[in-house]
Design a protein that fits this description.
18% strand, 2 domains, NAD+ binding, zinc, SIR2/SIRT2 'Small Domain', NAD-dependent protein deacylase, binds zinc ion, mitochondrion, Rossmann fold, 3-stranded antiparallel β-sheet, Sirtuin_cat_small_dom_sf, 10 helices, single chain, binds ligand BJW
Length: 279
């Protein structure tokens, strides 16, 4: 009955008192920076959907093809900048901590692997699905940061999204390799693919933030991919106020207290103004 409200003042009143805010984000928060979302028209690379390439099976069949896909996205995101939503979220984190001597906190729990929250100034970020700029050795399991552009010489000029792009497989020995001299194993992107479990430490950090949280913003996610999709409905079920910011309603909208339609670069800074503009 009733459905979610779009009463901005009511949300601002809640945020002014909140001690632990979680901002749960998805691809929509980066859409206005020019990073394509997954579902909808932007979600294709060549003729593939993300679901076809973001799997361990796809990497086993063709590490070259999967590396081309991730190389393309690494290079694309390097040309993009954090937008007003990323900046407002980062400024709210800083301000909230400053006015309370560190007692009040805002944590970003993101499904995105693009690093734009951190580049926008957020410090407390849980990356549920990993990072475009980290690698994971398939042999020694080492996880390493890697912002090289290109990540290896053989990928230079590869990864174009045009379906007619030449795509001779790159020999495995020329794909990204572990930097440890005694290993040199094949690297994979440090991202969570479909059918893979999220990393236990990541899940723990997300759980810690969610269990303490007394207000939650859900920004730019279709809320269909688990386990992230259950986080905000679980908070709402505990009567914690949840506000969704999305271009359109999602399957989770009716679980929530608030829904603010529209581009998040407008709606999110407005909602967080009660924190970012506080004296
Ligand atoms: C704007 C905007 C603007 C645009 N302003 N808004 C049932 C229960 C539990 C699990 C499952 C289940 N059924 C199937 C599963 C498994 C699966 C799953 O959830 N599948 C669903 C599709 C149903 N989950 C998994 O496999 C997870 N692992 C797991 O469950 O392990 C246990 C297990 C083991 C073995 C078998 C089965 C289970 C892992 C999921 C990992 C997801 N990884 C990806 C790819 C990462 C790597 C990469 O990027 O290449 O993560 S999938 C892809 O979707 C990516 C995203 O993080 C994720 C979420 O997408 P997101 O962010 O919501 O984007 P969109 O595009 O969907 O939505 C954008 C939204 O923004 C839209 O709503 C727009 O309207 C909005 N928007 N512009 C405001 N300007
Ligand atoms: Zn290694």
């Amino acid at each position: 009955m009733g459905g979610p409200s779009a009463d901005l003042n009511a949300l601002k009143g809640i945020l002014q008192k909140a001690k632990r805010i979680v901002v749960l984000t998805g691809a929509g928060v980066s859409a206005e920076s020019g990073v394509p979302t997954f579902r909808g028209s932007g979600g294709f690379w060549r003729t593939y959907k993300s679901q076809d390439l973001a799997t361990a099976g796809a990497f086993e069949r063709s590490p070259s093809l999967v590396w081309e896909f991730y190389h393309y996205r690494r290079e694309l995101v390097l040309t993009k900048q954090p937008n007003k939503a990323h900046h407002a979220i980062a400024e709210a984190e800083r301000r909230l901590s400053e006015v309370s001597g560190g007692v009040r906190q805002l944590t970003v729990v993101t499904q995105n692997i693009d690093g734009l929250h951190q580049r926008g100034g957020s410090n407390r970020v849980v990356e549920l699905h990993g990072s475009l700029y980290k690698t994971w050795c398939t042999k020694c399991r080492d996880i390493a940061e890697n912002t090289d552009s290109p990540i290896c010489p053989a990928l230079e000029g590869r990864g174009a999204p045009d379906p007619d792009s030449p795509s001779e497989p790159i020999p495995s020995k020329d794909l990204p390799r572990c930097r440890k001299d005694d290993c040199r194993g094949l690297l994979r992107p440090y991202v969570v693919w479909f059918g893979e479990n999220l990393h236990p430490e990541t899940l723990q950090r997300a759980d810690d933030a969610l269990s303490e949280c007394d207000a939650c913003l859900v920004v730019g996610t279709s809320s269909v991919v688990y386990p992230a999709a259950m986080y905000a409905p679980a908070l709402a079920a505990r009567n914690i106020p949840v506000a969704e910011f999305n271009l359109e309603p999602t399957s989770a909208t009716y679980d929530f207290m608030f829904h603010f339609p529209g581009p998040c670069t407008q709606t999110v800074p407005e909602a967080l103004a009660s924190i970012t503009d506080s004296q």
